[in-house]
Amino acid sequence: MRIVRLYQINKVLLQHGLDELIPGRWQPWYARVMRKCIFWIRNKHKHEPAGVRITLALQSLGPVFVKFGQMLSTRRDLLPPDIANELAMLQDKVKPFSSDTAQQIIKTSLKLNALSELFAEFDETPLASASIAQVHAAKLRNSHEDVVVKVLRPDIRNTIFADMKLLFTLAQVLQKWLPDGRRLRPVEVVREYEKTVIDELDLLSEASNGLQLKRNFEDSDALYVPHIYSDLCRTNVLVMERIYGIPISNIDALLAQKTNLKRLAETGVEVFFTQVFRDSFFHADMHPGNIFVSTENPQEPKYIAIDFGIVGTLNEEDKRYLAENFIAFFNRDYRKVATLHVDSGWVPGDTNIDAFEVAIRTVCEPIFQKPLAEISFGQVLLQLFNVARRFNMVVQPQLVLLQKTLLYIEGLGRQLYPQLDLWQTAKPFLEKWMKEQIGFGAMMSKVKANLPYWSEKFPEIPDLLHDGLIQLKRLPLQQQNIQAHIVAEHRKTNTVIGFSASAASFTILAGVLPMYAGSWIFSAVAGGVAVACWFKVWRASRLQVV
Q1: What is the mean pLDDT of the chain?
Q2: Model pLDDT for residues 482-491, shown as the tens digit of each residue
Q3: CA 131, CA 448: separation in Å to the nearest integer?
Q4: Which range is most confident: 44-48, 334-338, 475-479?
Q5: Burial 10-40 (b: 16+ CB within 10 A, else e)
Q6: Residue 495 near residue 515, CB atoms below 8 Å
Q7: Residue 68 reports pLDDT greater than 50
Q8: pLDDT tens profile 318-345
Q9: In which residues is ATP bound (predicted)?
Q10: Which residues contact 356 (CB under 8 A, 6 or more apart)?
Q11: Which residues of 487-525 are buried (b: 16+ CB within 10 A; e: fewer)?
Q12: Residues ≥6 apart with Cβ < 8 Å to 267
C-alpha cells in the first residue's frame, strides 16, 4: 500500500513537471536515467508557471503536503514572489467539497432533521476551504448571531493516516542512510508532527484550545479570540462567532484604513512571546489565512486569531533555556549560548565550548542591528545547519512546532514592516519575563502558590519533628545492633563453610579408606564424623533462614 502511495506521489510530481524545476547539475545520473525510464508519465502543465505547478501538485497530494506549502508561503525571503503568491492560495482557497455533503455531516453530528432547526440562515457557498475542513457562514435561529460552521472533510482521516505511514517510512530511510540522519532524528520529528495532525482532526480538541487561548487573552488589547459555542461542537463540526476583519496578508486594505503597520508588526512579536513564555501555550498554525486585523482602531491595531487545531506547549525547563538563549543572543553573549546548549543536552557534553562559541558568533553577529529587509535568513539558516552538523547538535522534536511558528512570525513581520527590528522588540519582553522568573517576586509567587499545601501540612510539623528527633536519638543503637547482626551472620556463614568443607572431606575419606585400610573401623569413624558435620551444616543453615 505504501509503495502504491509512493508511486502516486512521484506520478503527481512528474505530471506537474516539478522535476524540471531542479537544475540539471543537482540531479544525479541515476535520477535522470530513472526519469527517462518512466516515459509514460508526461508533464501535463508545461505552459503553467512554476508557482502554479507547485500549488496544483501540493493540492493533489493532500492535506499533509498542503500544510507544508502553507508554511513555505510565509517565507518570501526564500522563494521568488510569483511562487510565494501562488502558495498563499493554499491558506484558504483549497478546492471545496460538496455543500450537500457538508450539510449532511452537520445534521448527522448535531442530530437535526433540518438545518433550519438551528440556523435561521445557512450559506451553501463556503467562506473558506482549507486542507482539513471548510467553513460556511450561518445565523443562529434563536439569538440571530452571525456564526461560522466548520466542517471536517469526509474521509480525511484515512487520507492523513496513509500519508503519515508513508512519511514514517521515508523518515526511517532518511535516518538510516543520510550522514546526518541520526542527529536530525526525522522519525521523532514525524512522530511529533503526527500528534499535531491527529489533534487537528478532532474539532472538539480545537474548541478546547480556542477556549483556553481566549481565557489567556481575555482582557488583552493585542489579540481577540472569537467566542466558541462549545455545546454545538462535535468531533467533526465546530460552531464559532463570525469575525469581521482584514486578512493579515491584505496589505493594501490595511494601508487603505491607515493601519499603523509598525505597531502591528511589533504587537505580533509581543503576542507570540507572551503565548510562549507567559502561558506556555501558543497558536502553532499562524499562517496568514488564520490571522486577521480588527478594523476598530487602526492606530492601535488588534489581531484576531482563528483555527486552533494546532497548538504548542513547552515545559518549564525548555522554556527557561529558550529564554536564556534568546537573551544571550540579544546581548551577543555567545559564550553563554554555547554553554546553555551543552547544559541543556542539545549538543554533546564533550563539545569544545571555545570552538562552538566562535562558530555561533560567525553566524549570528552579521544579523544584529539590521531590519528584516536586510537580513538573509535563508543564508543564516544554512550556516546554522552547518554549525549544527559540525557540533553534532541534536534536533529537539518538542521544539519543531515552535520553530515552525517562528518562521510564520518572521514571514508576517517581513510582509507588514520590513524595517522591524525583531531583536529590540523582543528583548525587553524576555528580560522582564526572566526577572519575574528568578527574582524576589518569583520566589514570593511560588511561596504564595504553595501556601495552601503548607498550611495543610503545618499542624503536622511538630509531631514529625518529635518523631524525627527520637529516631535520630535511637540511630547509634540501631547502627550498633545492625553491625552486631552483620558480624553474627558473618560468623554463621564462616561456620557453615567450614563444616561443609569438613563434611565433604570426611565423606570422601570414608569412601576411599576401605580400598587401602584392612579394617572397616577407620572408614566408619570417618563416615560418622562426616554425618556429624553435615548435621551441623543443616542446623546452621536452618538458623540462618529463621
Answers
A1: 78
A2: 888 888 777 7
A3: 46
A4: 334-338
A5: eebbbbbbbbeeeeeeeeeeeeeeeeeeeee
A6: no
A7: yes
A8: 777 777 877 787 778 888 888 887 887 7
A9: 127-135, 150
A10: 338, 341, 342, 347, 387, 391
A11: eeeeeeeebbeebbebbeebbebbeebeeeeeeeeebee
A12: 222, 301, 302, 303
Residue 470 has pLDDT above 90, yes or no: no
Place of cell 460552531: 239
Label residue 377 by pLDDT band (50, 70, 90). Answer: low
Is the pLDDT at 214 greater than 90? The verdict is yes
- The answer to whether residue 145 scores a pLDDT higher than 90 is yes
Q: Is the pLDDT of residue 103 over 90?
A: yes
Q: Which of 199, 232, 14 is nearest to 118 (CA)?
A: 232
Q: Using CA of residue 139, residue 144, residue 147, residue 153, what is the dihedral sign?
A: negative
Q: Report which residue type is found at 140.
A: L
The binding site for ATP comprises: 127-135, 150
Is residue 193 scored above 70 in pLDDT?
Answer: no
Say what the alpha-carbon torsion angle 483, 486, 492, 496 is, to the nearest 10 degrees. -150
- pLDDT category of residue 545 using cuts at 50, 70 and 90: very low
Q: How far apart are CA 300 and CA 262, in angstroms?
A: 10
- Are the C-beta atoms of 263 and 333 separated by less than 8 Å? no
Give the Å distances, CA to CA, from 94 to 146, 200, 277.
24, 17, 34
Check residue 95 and report its DSSP letter: P
Do residues 309 and 285 touch, judged by C-beta distance below 8 A? yes
* Residue given cell 529564554 in the structure block: 323
**Cell 493516516 -> residue:** 161
For 146-185, b/e burial (b = at least 16 CB within 10 A) is ebbbbbbbeebeeebebbbebbbebbeeebeeeebbeebb
3-state secondary structure of 458: helix
Torsion of CA 449, 453, 457, 461, to 10 degrees: -30
CA distance 363 to 337: 13
- Catalytically active residues are 285
pLDDT at 421 over 80: no
Read off the C-alpha cell for 206.
480545537
Which pLDDT score is estimated for 379? 56
Q: Are 537 and 503 in contact (CB under 8 A)?
A: yes
Distance CA 180, CA 174 (A): 9
**In this structure, are residues 426 and 326 in contact, taking their beta carbons and an 8 Å threshold?**
yes
Strand partners, 128: 135
